[in-house]
Amino acid sequence: ALTFSALVLSVPGRAAPKKESIKQRIYQLLQRKVEKKQKAKDVRKKLRVLKKKEKAISSQVQETQQHLQHARKEYADTSQKLQKTRSQLVRTQGALQQAQGRLARHNEALGDRLVSIYRNGSLTYVEILLDSQSFSDVVKRTYLFRKIVENDLSLLRGIHEEKDQIVEKKK
């Protein structure tokens, strides 16, 4: 027991550095604990910020998906309308070509009729009466004259109708 006491007594201040070292170690550990708490607090704060960003981005994605869905629906509707319009255009162009063909035939018939009138002269009721040989001849000539006049009027009406249809279809 003497040797141990001598040893302890022979190293003055040995217990003091150990006590200081322990205090310093405790101080360091407390400081680390504070730093760790601060880091944890910072991480929680960053996590909250990231969660807010995630929520905002998620909301934006959802809104963008809704806009995209709406745009796709509009595109589909517009495409369908375009297809209907194209079909209608093809039908209208066909009808226009038919109307132009009828107009050309009517114009040709009118031209032939005008040439006939020019070559043969125009016929009047007076001429029908004077050139007739009998009453039945007057009736026949009057009937034929009316048919010619009806045909000429029908031809002119047809030309006007065809022109109107062509103008309408071109709109």
Given the structure, what is the number of helices? 4
Helix % is: over 70%
The total beta strand count reads 0
Mean pLDDT: 85
Order of helices and strands: HHHH
Termini separation: 126 Å
Quaternary organisation of the protein chains: single chain
- Taking pLDDT < 50 over at least 5 consecutive residues as the criterion, the unreliable ranges are 1-13
| Biggest pleated sheet | none
**Beta-strand residue percentage:** under 5%
The structural class is mainly alpha
Rg from alpha-carbon coordinates: 56 Å
Q: Name the shape in a single word.
A: rod-shaped
Write a concise synopsis of the structure shown.
By secondary structure, this protein is mainly alpha-helical. It has 4 helices and no strands.
Task: Please give a structural write-up.
The chain is mainly α. Helices cover 92% and strands 0% of the residues. Helix 2 (15-120) packs antiparallel against helix 4 (135-170) and helix 3 (125-131) runs antiparallel to helix 4 (135-170). It is rod-shaped. It starts with a helix and ends with a helix. Residues 1-13 have low confidence and may be disordered.
Descriptive keywords:
single chain; 171 residues; mainly alpha; disordered N terminus
